[in-house]
Fold this protein.
Amino acid sequence: MVGLRLAASGVEHHGGAWSGGRPPGPRRERWRVPGFSAVDDSDQPGALLRYLDDAAAAESGMKQYAVAAHALRRPAGPILDVGCGAGHDLVLLADAGLAAVGVDPSAVMVTAARDRTAAAVPVVRAAGEALPFADGAFAGCRIERVLLHVADPRVVLAESVRCVAAGGLVTVLEPDFGSFRVRSTTLPERADWISAARNPGVGARLWELLEQAGCDVLDRVEELSVWRSLARLENVAGFPMSVERAVAAGRLDATDATRWVDEQRARNAAGEFYALLPKIQVVAQKR
Ligand SMILES: C[S@@+](CC[C@H](N)C(=O)[O-])C[C@H]1O[C@@H](n2cnc3c(N)ncnc32)[C@H](O)[C@@H]1O
């Protein structure tokens, strides 16, 4: 157990966003909360659903960008949303007049997506590593905040691209926690140690990964989220649990961590807290 003076906030990292009360059980068990890598194993799936609602409101610009990119091409067939979660993007696609199909491995998410779309959009329960669709069955594909949670992003991308017809559009949006920054005089501002997601820096690798999956990149769009309160850090990056976890994993010195946490709490109280998270969207075309 790490001897930090960190009051439990009851949140988990993005890459397992956790926001709904401290996980039950001994403290050492807290870091095993599976989050978005295995939603159905979470004992608080409602918190994960609420997180997606918050994110849908906060990130609507990038979501709309992906919908617009697909709509502009006037696709002749449906768009596949891999890791569709609670169906926020299926609604946006349908509102833009596009046929869509959602796929997600979580029963909780599939139910939420079907409810949100009033069953007007097909939602299939399956993992991105093994999609139950024929080669080239879709006119396009979108993926958002999924690859940071999967075992191997290359496998999910290859399988998703397989399901898209030649010339179809593939849009992928992922954060880059490798470039996450928190204003500080205690530690270097780069705080890439904070995320415990499986692939925290995958956003920065999207271009290369999409090319490897058989696509040509058409556009790369970057949005820098600016968080002005510790509450955002709690909700998205699991403060302060993520700090304890970084110390336990040897990524951060315990004394430095305690000073950093004290500094960030003081900054927050003074209205001087700043954190910056790049989110990268790549628009590509299947060769
Ligand atoms: C952070 S949520 C994002 C949901 C949605 N794309 C959005 O932007 O609102 C991550 C989603 O990825 C799903 N997921 C996790 N592992 C997956 C996998 N191997 N293949 C496809 N989806 C997966 C989760 O069940 C969850 O619904």
Observations:
- Residues 1-33 have pLDDT under 50 and may be disordered.
- The pocket of S-adenosylmethionine is lined by residues 36-37, 39, 52, 56, 82-85, 88-89, 104-106, 109, 127-129, 144-146, 149-150, 156 (CB under 6 Å).
- The CA atoms of residues 159 and 184 lie 41 Å apart.
- DSSP finds nine helices and ten strands in the chain.
